[in-house]
Amino acid sequence: MTTLVAGGTGRLGSMLVERLREAGGAVRVLTRAESSAGALRGAGVEAVVGRAEDPRAAAAAATGCSAVVASISGFGGTAASSVRTVDGAGNLELIRAASTAGVRRFVLVSSLTAAPRARLELDRSKDAAERALRSTDLDWTIVRAAPFLETQLAVMGESLPATGRTTIYGSAEAEVRVVPLEDVAAAVLQASSGACGGGLIELPGAATSLQAMSEALHRAAGTDGRSRRIPIGALRLMAVTARPFAPFLARAAGAAVVLHDSGSKPARGGAVARMPAPVLDAAARASLTPAALARP
Ligand SMILES: NC(=O)c1ccc[n+]([C@@H]2O[C@H](COP(=O)([O-])OP(=O)(O)OC[C@H]3O[C@@H](n4cnc5c(N)ncnc54)[C@H](OP(=O)(O)O)[C@@H]3O)[C@@H](O)[C@H]2O)c1
Fold first, then answer.
1. Helices (H), 222-276
2. What is the pLDDT at residue 76?
């Protein structure tokens, strides 16, 4: 009963691998990096080296597994490895490989804003993968998550060790909706074990402000609360004008705009909970570890 975690070296994926191993399950990871595969094998985890969009690598990774978790992302990649090739083609190939190999369950980690005509290419690629998965006979679950709290804190806190200042992308008072990694991991693990019925799971997260996130980072670091502000107008402009020469910068600016606007959208399914301060503080502490800061 092996579970493949494609993206098992990532922020969410490494948490999933850890939890699956703690529960005594057999785990396999698909990674592009020989060095990561070596470290995983040394820790007793099976590893397949390759790209998800490569049919041979996807088949080798899926064959013999009872469940596949697709937690890959090309958001931080270059043109050769982008959201289109990873979140789009890579997920499609994993779905195809799982179907061919007779895998029972497939869990796709998607985005809350996935839609055919979404603003971000990431969300359009996720939507294509969702539609492909729904059309299979696999026992599927789609986990649509809000932006991860820990990822946003790491982005805001990246400048903190060197400058003593966080970076606030947009207005400090802006309300945003973010979801703690633990909540995403719990939903994915339930789905991959068959403990829930499958289908669509939406994780809209809880509301907080960019200022509250910045303050949590300063509390965690013991610093004095200063921040550098990037105006929302500059981010909107960068999301469009940087596309031809700095695609990552454009993607990051676009994602910051979507996050910045997320709190002003009416919530599907009623009122939105507020992010509890202890959860914010714990995530800020976790985001400031050297290992967390080293992540792309
Ligand atoms: N971060 C967020 O705020 C957020 C919000 C909603 C949904 N999500 C989704 O949640 C999932 C996990 O996100 P994350 O932030 O934890 O990801 P992450 O830390 O950026 O990790 C990305 C993973 O994708 C793998 N990967 C990249 N290109 C690949 C390729 N061509 N073939 C195979 N693997 C490849 C990387 O593995 P190697 O480098 O080892 O190859 C890495 O393990 C993703 O599907 C993401 O889209 C994220």
1. 232-241, 247-262
2. 84
Q: How far apart are CA 233 and CA 235, in angstroms?
A: 5
Ligand 1 close to Cβ of residue 39 (< 6 A) = no
| Residue 245 CB neighbours (<10 A) | 8
And the tokens for 265? 């959208």
> Which residue segment(s) compose the domain that 242 sits in?
206-294
pLDDT digits 0-9 by tens, 263-287: 877 776 677 899 999 999 999 999 8
Are 13 and 5 in contact, with CB atoms under 8 Å apart?
yes
Ligand 1 mean position, distance from CA 223 (Å): 31
Q: Which helix (H) or strand (E) holds 31?
A: strand 26-31
Query: Averaged over 16-34, what is the pLDDT?
Result: 97
Is 181's C-beta closer than 6 angstroms to any atom of ligand 1?
no
Q: How far is the CA of 295 from the centre of ligand 1 (A)?
A: 11
Centre of ligand 1 to C-alpha 225, Å, is 31
CATH of the domain at 98: 3.40.50.720
Task: Let me know if residue 165 belongs to a domain.
Answer: no
In a domain, 178, yes or no: no
Distance 72 CA to ligand 1 centre (A): 4
Number of Cβ within a 10 Å radius of residue 223: 16
Number of domains present in the structure of the chain: 2
Q: Reply yes or no on whether the pLDDT at 79 is more than 70.
A: no
Which is it for strands 206-209 and 175-178: parallel, antiparallel or unpaired? antiparallel
